[in-house]
Amino acid sequence: MKKGLTLLLLGALLSQCATVPITGRKQVKLLPSSQLNGMALSQYDEVKKSEKLLPDSDQRVKDVREIGTKISAAVTKFMKANHMKDRLSEFNWEFNVADQDILNAWCMPGGKVMFYTGILPVCDGVGGIATVMGHEVAHAVARHGNERMSQGLIQQFGGIGLAVAMQDKPQETQNLFMAAYGASSQLGMLKYSRQHESEADKMGLVFMIMAGYEPEEAIDFWGRMSAQKGGAAPPEFLSTHPSDQTRIKEIKEFIPKAKELAAKYNK
Ligand SMILES: [Zn+2]
To answer: Which of 90, 94, 136, 236 is catalytic?
Structure first.
């Protein structure tokens, strides 16, 4: 019975395929968004309980929320313009700042965003926060975490369905989920691929321009991030496999196209 169920689940999941907006890359999406969104909700609550969150009155929280609200409004427009309207209901945005000195930020499915205080000095103001916000939100919009979680499931459990894994190995599944979304402190696990990074950079630029920020701020941000290397950066910001110079060059090259797309979607 159980084996039959697993096969049935796998068959249903493997048949799903999607296209990443902007880059047009075909993406095999293995896991249903509904299940990942459910996990995201409970995991986000766990993180909020275990981290020391800055209070609503803190200026850093106000900044992150204001920028997050603008970027999320851009994402809504973007999705409407890209036949992704049906995905809008999956998002219920939330932005928080955890008081921990690490270079990290992430966005879980459903738009659950966390910034850590350690990254804010590198952001150095609104433009840098918008760069990171655009980039992290882009990972979620492009469903990169889903791809990584799917790959991780196959690696660790030989491809059993998420529902089965959650039931049989809840802790391992949770760890995998956290790692897939960059929310785990375990270094080196499930790094974003170069392809995912590049897609998030490009989409993030479009979002930040649509939200009214200068895309050149992204060049400055990655320059500052490059100077920070060697510390205890978590996977997301260690994962810049190509040299930072390559990344910055690609961002510069994409800015004219990003401006063009932002103008089109902002109509
Ligand atoms: Zn990234």
So the answer is: 136
Report how far apart, in Å, the C-alpha atoms of 259 and of each of 81, 208, 211, 215, 252 are: 15, 10, 11, 8, 12
pLDDT per residue as tens digits for the range 205-262: 999 999 999 999 999 999 888 877 655 555 556 555 456 788 899 999 999 999 999 9
Strand partners, 106: 114
Of 64, 67, 113, 78, whose CA–CA distance to 93 is shortest?
113
- In sign, the C-alpha dihedral spanning 94, 82, 205, 200 is positive
pTM value surpassing 0.85: yes
Tell me the CA–centroid distance for residue 5 and ligand 1, in Å: 35
Any idea how long the chain is? Answer: 267
| Whether residue 94 lies in the annotated active site | no
User: In terms of DSSP H, where are the helices of the chain?
Assistant: 2-14, 33-50, 59-81, 120-123, 126-141, 144-157, 162-168, 170-180, 194-210, 216-227, 235-238, 244-265
- Domain ranges within the chain, ordered by starting residue: 2-265
Whole-number Å distance, alpha carbon 107 to ligand 1 midpoint, is 10
pLDDT, tens digit (0-9, with 9 covering 90-100), for 140-191: 999 998 888 888 888 888 877 788 888 888 888 888 888 888 887 554 445 6
Task: Give residue 200 CA to ligand 1 midpoint distance, Å.
Answer: 6
